[in-house]
Amino acid sequence: MSAKPRVESGITGLDKMLSGGFIPGTANLVRGAPGTGKTVLALQYLLQGVEHGEPGLLISFEEFPQALQNDAQALGWDLRAWQEQGLLHLYFTSPQVLLKSLEAPAGPLSELFVEKDIKRVVLDSVTHFTRLTNEQQQLRGIYNRLINALKREGATSLLLAEEGRIEGQRAERGALSFVVDTIILLRYVEVESAIQRAIAVMKMRGSDHVKEIRRFEIRQGGIVVTGPFENRENILTGISHRVSR
């Protein structure tokens, strides 16, 4: 029995790190500090679907559609054109309303999944769910409800999350890392007194993946993974140093 085709991210270097792309129907966490490129990665993922006729949905708790459209325009992407073609849908809501909408079989969000045949979903950002409760078990239950609902819809989803001491502690209180299928980490790295960006696949359930930490850049047209950090140590600490020979 042959494996299902992978869901490509649209970022060639990342897809190679993922052994071809995301596994269909999975929930995939993209974690990074503000400005590291989470939203760019997410939009590129949706654009890859658009170019192959796969409708996508971006659910946002913090950025209004106008702000997203402006950010995308700066990279050369016209979100409005995708929306007019019915290939991209922007949904601005709150965590509480989203959970209720996903769990309502006859709700407008479930109808959107069916009517538009949504296959790719981005949620920006899952960090907001940590504000709903201080109870560990309750938070884990929320994560499970969210991810199970997205999987029931047959979507391959990217969950964006803020990387920071407080945000990370809150997220892990609900064991988010154990609930998702894949974890992609984006980091700023200081190399020779210059700031660079690093990407790493920390986990991929049901598949092998590249273990190297690799450089990436954000250019016109999106993210480009340029290669590994050679002869460097302590990259994920943010301050790397050259390997001593």
Molecular structure report:
The chain is α/β, with parallel strands linked by helices and 245 residues long. The protein has one domain: Rossmann fold. It has helices at residues 12-17, 38-51, 65-74, 79-84, 95-102, 108-116, 136-152, 165-173, 176-179; strands spanning 27-32, 56-60, 88-92, 120-124, 156-162, 182-191, 194-204, 214-219, 222-228, 232-233, 241-242. The strands form 2 sheets. Strands 3-2-4-5-1-6-7-8-9 form a 9-stranded mixed β-sheet.
Summary of the model, kept short:
The chain has helices at residues 12-17, 38-51, 65-74, 79-84, 95-102, 108-116, 136-152, 165-173, 176-179, and strands at 27-32, 56-60, 88-92, 120-124, 156-162, 182-191, 194-204, 214-219, 222-228, 232-233, 241-242. The chain has 245 residues and is α/β, with parallel strands linked by helices.
| Helix count, DSSP H or I runs of 4 or more residues | 9
* Overall structural domain count: 1
Task: List the helices and strands in order.
Answer: HEHEHHEHHEHEHHEEEEEE
Examine the coordinates and then state which fold CATH places here, giving the name of the CATH topology.
Rossmann fold
Uncertain ranges:
none
Share of helix among residues?
25-40%
| Tally of strands | 11
Q: Find the structural class using helix and strand composition.
A: alpha/beta
The CATH architecture: 3-Layer(aba) Sandwich
Highlighted features:
two-stranded antiparallel sheet, 34% helix, single chain, 245 residues, nine-stranded mixed β-sheet, 9 helices, alpha/beta, Rossmann fold
Secondary-structure map:
Layout: H1 12-17, E1 27-32, H2 38-51, E2 56-60, H3 65-74, H4 79-84, E3 88-92, H5 95-102, H6 108-116, E4 120-124, H7 136-152, E5 156-162, H8 165-173, H9 176-179, E6 182-191, E7 194-204, E8 214-219, E9 222-228, E10 232-233, E11 241-242
Parallel strand pairs: 1-5, 1-6, 2-3, 2-4, 4-5
Antiparallel strand pairs: 6-7, 7-8, 8-9, 10-11
